[in-house]
Amino acid sequence: MITLNATQIITQEYKGSRNFMTSQVLKYGKITVNMAYELSRGKGIFDESIWGVTIVTLNSDNTITREQEKSQLFHSLVSACDYIEKLKVEYNTSNIDLD
Asked: Is the pTM above the cut of 0.90?
């Protein structure tokens, strides 16, 4: 398997396209060695600020799975960051620097 950083994993899957609701990328990072996230922000349908966390997994055959059930929309940056930390705890990587 090829070792890619979070930006490379996300870019390989989405090829530079942006989510129309949360088009401003704030950060790329990793939940596990093979699971990457994108933290982004944008405006909701009522012009309120929203934040998105998109999750993808790099598989052993170098394909990528979009983890739609793990990708979430939030109404605060704190909630989005808390969710990322929750996933790291769930995967037992909260004390490991994978970014």
From this structure: yes
